[in-house]
């Protein structure tokens, strides 16, 4: 790991690293917040934050205002990048495909399959790296925004034994039924739509009862609400097997970090309760 | 005024505008946070935030995490840009002169004098515009970071009747005695150093007792501390006439917004007390 940036904040430390990932076969960046309380004798739990389209590891750490509450609660935060990057990595001119748009899947199709293995990176390689190098426990929760909200829901639902709780802001809840998801999944996974369902939160919830608690906030002034995000599909799917989803429609809020910053403290408190259980 | 962006946040509103400024003779941008409580019947006081070198009106509003506390306290925040901008405005290739580096002075020298009238813009034109168009009172405080900390100190000290309190993070306290200030003042004000003193917080404090309370936070891991910021000069000058300066050296903190976000709530509480007096 190579340290790129370091700043003291709220008594703890903000750290940014790059490392050579064997999963995505290239350099990956991530950001970490470590509360002052974290030590090898007193490891702290970790919230993984997955960001949305066009984002890097830095958007959340700069704009969400999450470190104050995380410091108070004694929670570490890890924010990975949203895809592999670099001149040798496949890309597309559109903002919603390729670099910055990994969609947290393991791609099976050329030219994406070589590097775009974000599902395995987030589920397996990154937590192993974090737990080997920082004073954190193996208590994990996962959260995200938009494409990252989709990632958090899918990864949490498929790996309930690895996480304590799931939350999302404005998630793409049903990617197999929206333009962003259909475009990305066609490219990364190919035209056999059966292979798409493992990466769709609504499909996963329709299939069985979810054991983890889920908190979702969605602004009702979000421009992407009806065409891309479809939160009512998530509620319907969660109800099929009585999964514990709290979805809150927040009146007047949009898709931005001004929305996320307003409610991030409540998400951190929700995860804290589950992480400490 | 032209509305460029609007988002609901912490129950209030983030707004970004451009307007045609008669003072700087061109378009200027500013950002505003209005707490939910603000109304024509119940106008709220305003904190003006002046940003540092290279910044626009957006850095503070995105990175400081200030809106949560401002909403709670019922304070509006106005963050102007740091200089005039545009193809027809004089500029320099360096980051510390020209666009993004107005230094909150009224330039007297070519080619800067035509547009770089930031002192008058901040003191006169902007508050008039804000108070005519938003549900705010004429209770004002002023704060800033680095170059903007210099601006806040100088503007507050020279216009005590217009403000209730002054605060700064990592301010350039003594620009006539540091490289950033000497370069900028030479360009904007010319070689007669007598004209520089009206824009130097240490000179102003050495000249007379300051009637406004001042809070300054300075990280001791700030790379610019010794060569550019010189907080001990400010303490010495404030002591000459018994001016009320609280300067806090914060161990381990650097020059970044990770530092500002850590202590911004305390600055807002300090201003709130003075604004409500």
Automatic annotation (TrEMBL), chains A, B:
Active-site residue list: 146, 222, 255
UniProt catalytic activity: S-formylglutathione + H2O = formate + glutathione + H(+)
InterPro entries given in the database record: AB_hydrolase_fold, Esterase-like, S-formylglutathione_hydrol
EC code(s) of this entry: 3.1.2.12
Gene3D superfamilies: alpha/beta hydrolase (3.40.50.1820)
Molecular function terms, GO-annotated: carboxylic ester hydrolase activity; S-formylglutathione hydrolase activity
Gene Ontology biological process terms in this record: formaldehyde catabolic process
Residue ranges the record marks as coiled coil: none
GO cellular component: cytosol
Pfam family of the protein (one): Esterase
EC main group: hydrolase
Keyword list, A-Z: Hydrolase, Serine esterase
SUPFAM superfamilies xrefs: alpha/beta-Hydrolases
Function: Serine hydrolase involved in the detoxification of formaldehyde.
Family of the protein in this entry: Belongs to the esterase D family.
Name of the featured protein: S-formylglutathione hydrolase
Species the sequence originates in: Thalassotalea marina
């Amino acid at each position: 790991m190579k340290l790129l940036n370091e700043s003291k904040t709220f008594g703890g430390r903000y750290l940014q690293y790059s490392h050579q990932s064997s999963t995505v076969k290239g350099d990956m960046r991530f950001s970490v917040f470590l509360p002052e309380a974290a030590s090898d004798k007193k490891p702290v739990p970790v919230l993984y934050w997955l960001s949305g389209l066009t984002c890097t590891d830095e958007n959340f750490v700069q704009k969400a205002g999450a470190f104050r509450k995380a410091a108070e609660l004694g929670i570490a935060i890890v924010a990975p990048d949203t895809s592999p990057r670099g001149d040798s990595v496949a890309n597309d001119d559109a903002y919603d495909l390729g670099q910055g748009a990994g969609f947290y899947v393991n791609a099976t199709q050329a030219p994406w399959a070589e590097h775009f293995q974000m599902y395995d990176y987030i589920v397996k390689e990154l937590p192993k790296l974090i737990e080997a190098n920082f004073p954190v426990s193996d208590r994990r929760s996962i959260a995200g925004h938009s494409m990252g909200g989709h990632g958090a829901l899918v990864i949490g639902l498929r790996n309930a034994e690895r996480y304590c709780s799931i939350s999302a802001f404005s998630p793409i809840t049903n990617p197999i039924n929206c333009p962003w998801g259909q475009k990305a999944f066609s490219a990364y996974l190919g035209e056999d739509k059966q292979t798409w369902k493992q990466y769709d939160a609504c499909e996963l919830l329709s299939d069985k009862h979810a054991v983890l608690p889920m908190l979702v906030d969605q602004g009702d002034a979000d421009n992407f609400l009806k065409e891309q995000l479809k939160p009512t599909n998530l509620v319907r799917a969660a109800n099929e097997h009585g999964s514990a989803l709290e979805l809150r429609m927040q009146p007047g809020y949009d898709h931005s970090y001004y929305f996320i910053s307003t409610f991030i403290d409540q998400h951190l408190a929700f995860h804290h309760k589950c992480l400490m259980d």
